[in-house]
Design goal:
Elements lengths: L5 H7 L3 E8 L9 E10 L2 E9 L8 H7 L3 H4 L5 H12 L4 E3 L2 H17 L7 E3 H8 L8 H8 L9 H20 L3 H4 L11 E6 L2 E6 L8 E3 L6
Parallel strand pairs: 1-4, 4-5
Antiparallel strand pairs: 1-2, 2-3, 6-7, 7-8
Length: 230
């Protein structure tokens, strides 16, 4: 994962492959990708795009279809994931991958399928915009992509289809890059977990106050309250 410095955020908001997936459900163990899209961004300009439906060879849950509008009939004649993941790997090359909540969602599906179809995971570094939002917008009640789009006045039309979400997130990423360059007073006081990039929270323990990662129990990083952490 790319370190979330202001310089890195500003650079990779303009130079990355920003991607998004739609799935049959939320489980990276039991569910499957049904759409994979990406934008190649160079010097702030979209220079190429990739988008493909995927036949999951399983039923798309009604809950998933209600969100993304993708039905079994729409993916019946789509290519299998092994074909799509190969094309995605060729499209991304060695670029830094970007996306919203990709650390805990999208990349789990992508790396699972890359390992199964290609025999190895993708080696690309990545930067996650939800972690940037948690770092630089600590007072916002939600850092979901829709909430960020509303906060920044970005059109949410067509959301929950992969390519549309890529385009929405690209605009949001640009706004977050500006936040990183000119952080608020609240953002300047946020302590960040050096292991996963999530904010740390002051907690009380048996031996006094300490900072614990807000991603607990997935991340169990802790630090004495007297220690410094940026």
């Amino acid at each position: 994962m790319i370190e979330l410095t202001a310089e890195n955020i500003q650079y990779y908001s303009r130079n990355c492959v920003l991607f998004d997936i739609e799935t049959t459900g939320l489980s990276s163990v039991n569910d499957a990708i049904i759409e994979l899209s990406a934008l190649k961004v160079v010097d702030g300009q979209v220079t190429d795009e990739f988008s493909s439906m995927v036949n999951p060879h399983m039923h798309i849950s009604e809950a998933a279809s209600a969100i993304n509008g993708i039905t079994d009939a729409m993916v019946k004649d789509a290519p299998d994931i092994d074909q799509v993941i190969k094309k995605f790997k060729t499209f991304t090359e060695d670029a830094v991958l970007a996306g919203h909540n990709i650390k805990n969602f999208d990349l789990r599906f992508i790396q699972r399928d890359a390992l199964r179809c290609l025999g190895k995971e993708l080696k690309n570094e990545y930067i996650d915009t939800v972690l940037i939002a948690r770092r630089y917008l600590p007072d916002l009640s939600s850092r979901a992509l829709g909430a960020l789009a509303e906060y920044y006045g970005v059109s949410y039309e067509g959301a929950h289809r992969a390519l549309a979400d890529c385009r929405i997130n690209l605009e949001v990423f640009g706004h977050l890059a500006m936040e990183a360059g000119h952080p608020s007073a609240a953002a300047k006081n946020v302590k960040v977990c050096p292991q996963c990039g999530n904010p740390l929270k002051l907690r009380n323990g048996k031996y006094g106050e300490f900072y614990g990662c807000t991603a607990y129990p997935e991340c169990k990083f802790t630090q004495d309250a007297g220690d410094s952490c940026r």
